[in-house]
């Protein structure tokens, strides 16, 4: 009888813990498909910006403007040596070359592109 009570207690504890974890996870990270279009957009922007911050920390993203450009992160192009998720605009300026169009506009908002 004593072992049966321990067994039931352990099972209930596991079930309640699982339910609590499931509810917490779904509240903190709602399923993307269930979000409104605006919420989807905001989540994508937030995650993109976080990814850029991480790339900066790793030294893979050397942008010349603040906040950093997003163009180089989102697509492979001539300004990031055709490697999406990186930025070399700061290095390009140091070499006397032009940065990506987004950085160029950020450095000189009134200049023609």
Helices and strands in order:
Layout: H1 2-28, H2 37-58, H3 71-74, H4 89-94, H5 101-107
Helix content: 55-70%
The SSE string, one letter per element, is HHHHH
| Tally of separate helices | 5
Going by helix content, strand content and strand pairing, the class is mainly alpha
Number of strands: 0
Distance between the termini: 81 Å
Averaged pLDDT? 87
Report the β-strand fraction as a percent range.
Answer: under 5%
Tell the overall outline: elongated
Low-confidence segments: none
Largest sheet: none
Which characteristics define this entry?
5 helices; 113 residues; 0% strand; mainly alpha; single chain
What's this entry about, in short?
58% of the residues lie in helices and 0% in strands. With 113 residues, it is mainly α. The longest helix has 27 residues, at 2-28.
